[in-house]
Amino acid sequence: MDEKTFKERTKKFALKVISLVESLPRTYAAEVIGKQLLRSATSIGANYRAACRAKSTADMINKLKTVEEESDESMYWLELLGESNLAPLSQLSELSQEANELLAMTVASLKTLRAKTNRQL
Domain ranges in the chain? Predict the structure, then answer.
């Protein structure tokens, strides 16, 4: 997947998460989990953009590791929302799938970059 498409997907994901968080019930638990999800989900795209401007391959790998962590964390918060019945699973399934795909693509990119780095050594 090219850089532009990945940037668009991460932004679209963040916007959908914003809508989800705004629709959560006004309970303490939903508020706490919603804030955590909002932070991690919006961080995916922001950190990917930073990775695109990396100064070196090592810098890019480091920034993509943050994208990996934030994608995985977003999946965790989505799981908690579903398992605690704070949001309907139908509303979460598309977001969970997208978070999983973003994570898989990031991991694949990291593997490619690491292999490239090892070949250069």
Answer: 3-120
DSSP annotation of 55: S
DSSP at 79: H
- Per-residue pLDDT of the chain in tens (121 residues, 90 and over written 9): 799 999 999 999 999 999 999 999 999 999 999 999 999 999 999 999 999 999 999 999 999 999 999 999 999 999 999 999 999 998 899 999 999 999 999 999 999 999 988 887 6
Handedness of CA 17, 22, 27, 28 (dihedral sign): positive
Name the region of 2 (left: φ>0; alpha: ψ -120 to 50; beta: rest): beta
Q: pTM of the entire structure?
A: 0.93
Enter the CATH code of domain 3-120.
Answer: 1.20.1440.60
Give CA–CA dist 61/81, Å, rounded: 30
Block residue for tokens 């795209």: 45
Q: 66: closest CA among 98, 103, 37, 12?
A: 103
For residues 24 and 81, the answer to whether their CB atoms sit within 8 Å is yes
